[in-house]
What we know:
Elements: H1 14-17, H2 23-40, E1 46-50, E2 53-58, H3 69-81, H4 83-87, E3 89-96, E4 99-106, E5 111-112, E6 118-122, E7 125-127, H5 130-140, E8 149-150, E9 152-157, E10 163-164, E11 175-176, H6 179-196
Parallel strand pairs: 6-9
Antiparallel strand pairs: 1-2, 3-4, 4-9, 5-8, 6-7, 10-11
Amino acid sequence: GTRVEVRDLFFATPARLKFLKEPRTESGHVADALRRLAMAHPAIGFRLDSDERTLIDLPPAAPSLIDSSDKMRLARLGAIMGREFADNAVAIDANREGFRLSGFAGLPTLNRPSSQHQYLFVNGRPVRDKLLVGAVRGAYQDFLARDRHPMVALFLEAPTGMVDVNVHPAKTEVRFRDAGIVRGLIVGALRTALAAAGHRASM
């Protein structure tokens, strides 16, 4: 396995230290980044210790789930997003012109007051992209009030020549050569899955 230990990160660059927030806030950012990586790689175990406290402890997927990528992914998502999500999510699997969208989307009756519980990935990389967030909002607009947000974890696989990951230094934003295909794929796949599960309500 791999162990990464960080201490006195800005000891030699005190100017950068001034821009850091409280340790609790910064450790929260680290935990969020690690959770996103763990969602993308359920076969790998992740553990985060900070100040002698364990913030994250996610063992690798159980051997019985290795043969089922959907079950393996949903188990990991449930461990991070909560059992409520795992029990009230519909599977997404759609293709369009070389793009593939997979993952899970929460039923409309399972919603939150912010978009904090929307996790989006492009080619295994966690992103916070306006196009993708807007497509999710568009897909749910007929199901949710404007001030409510769905819980989703969506994984988009794109041909490397169709996506630019060098838009932002943190690589959290991407640019697609044909944004219309991506938006249409996300909106169409989510609406189809939600319509098929129309009789279900979150438990």
